[in-house]
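Example record used in the benchmark description.
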Amino acid sequence: MDNPNEKFFTFTDNLFTFESYACDCVTDIENVEPGVIKETVKIQGLADSPIRFAFAPSKGMVRLAKTGSINSDRILTELLTIPEGDTKKLFSFFKEYGFFFPVSTDGYEAIEVKPLYSLINRIKAVVRLISALGEARKDYKRILGLTLYLQLTQPVLLSFECFGGQQMPTCEHAIYAELSRASALPQSNQASQPYDADAYSIPDTIFTTFELNIEEYTNIVGGFAAATPGGEQSQIYKDITRLYCNAPHLSPELRNEVDFLFHFQHSIAVIKGFTAAGDIEFYDTGENVRYRYAANFSDRMKESLIAMAKMAVRDEIGYNLYGMRPRYDIETMSPAWEIQDMLTGIYVSIFFMRPGIELYRKCANQNCDRWFLVNTTSAKRKYCESSCRNATAQRAHRLRKQANR
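Model output (structure tokens):
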């Protein structure tokens, strides 16, 4: 097999190129113990099926034909379309475009499925978040859900032979690390309060100064906030409150994030869970969340959330460009970019997305899972192709006829 470190992007007229191999994929099922099944994907590169990729402006990463023309501009959109757990579509993608990392062409390499889907989910969340930030009418709850997924989901350890026996973790965001240390923070504000004070005065990026009742603080971090749905159960709420009260010397970016997450949960709803699609689950009822959201989600809160989301995108992309570095090609006397793996190429494609100018949307046809790249000047475009628009219109027409019978 060729040395993967000898493969590199070349830069000519804003075009990047990269070579990889198509892959053969099989699945092994192992019964680890009663009721516990371990699914392992095995992948082998096909030396006789090389693939050449490029990054094309306004199209993202594309696959090139032997002639150099583009024969597929759907690489990222097809990756976004793979449902979690659908090994058939996963295998189809790897057979078509190759694997994220260099794999042997001499034999199968075993790869655990769960970390693999977690990696794909992070890619999906980054693209969705960039696109959500680029929409003229922003869905702030979805932006929050995607940001939380990227920043607060436990990093996954990836293990592949090409890593030389080492494990590569997915991106760990600063707020995740701070939350893991929050319970060990000293009670810094107590010493600065008058002995008879009933509240902590917290310097705050949203409200300048916020008075947090001492008894309320004690109840939250102790898990006794029974009056707040989720106040007793949520570890995130407890740790965010600890950081809010006891970590005044965090960076301005982190303080903004801590302040936002505290006020959102304190005045709107305690967060129970979140997904790579941006969905959020709260401990409180939907009706209560909607009422408090309308009353308390201020413009200043929106600004803080957008700053927090942008930081998440920046850190996620920056971390995943680890395999790319500039070099000068003395043969062509032109700039070139060394690249270690396909994952880096995907993030290069994401890196060159132009928020506010182009974004990815999911097709509005309920029978189509495809995402597509759209220019924001075509803000009303909802369908990937005219056939999906026509199918939706025909479906709506049939439903109207049935309703009028």
